[in-house]
Amino acid sequence: MTPIPTGRLVDTESGPALVVTREFRAPISDVWASLTEPDRTARWYGRWSGQAGPGRSIQVQMGFEEGQPWSEMRIDTCDPPHRLALSSQDESGLWRMEVLLTPQGERTELRFVQHLDTVEGLGEIGAGWEYYLDRLLAVHNDTPMPSFEDYYPAMKAYFDQFTGSPG
User: Fold this and answer.
1) Closest by alpha carbon to 92, among 130, 57, 118?
2) How far, in Å, CA of 15 to CA of 29, rounded?
3) The model scores a pTM over 0.85
4) pLDDT digits (tens, 9 = 90+) for 43-54
5) SS3 26
6) Cα gap 64→160, rounded to integer Å
7) Which helix (H) or strand (E) holds 122?
């Protein structure tokens, strides 16, 4: 499999953002459940625990990363079934992400947005989100899971071309 990168760098009110979209042959409620129910997130990203709700923090495990690390994420906005915004802080800095779902007949468009303070490291970050969103699609479509080796380093040059000038 040779996945094709789809991410774009766009300008938002808060600065540049990485945007990656996917379309699901599923109703919005089903896609929302895949983003918010711990047993379902465990299948494509990792499990989470804690008391969920806007303004609260949860513990999220990156179940498909080396060492399966846990991190704390703050739920900034939860507007079911349309918008979920999360943020976290690590040694790389502040991560501000949101997922926007839009019904389109029997399908649902997922728009993932990562708000950026810098485009540094985007070659790795973009490939990672393409991989995880394709994992989510594979769960929904009951197809084989993608391999990260097909995404990185193959997609690095594509995302490295974004040098801070949203297009």
Assistant:
1) 118
2) 30
3) yes
4) 999 999 999 999
5) coil
6) 23
7) helix 122-141
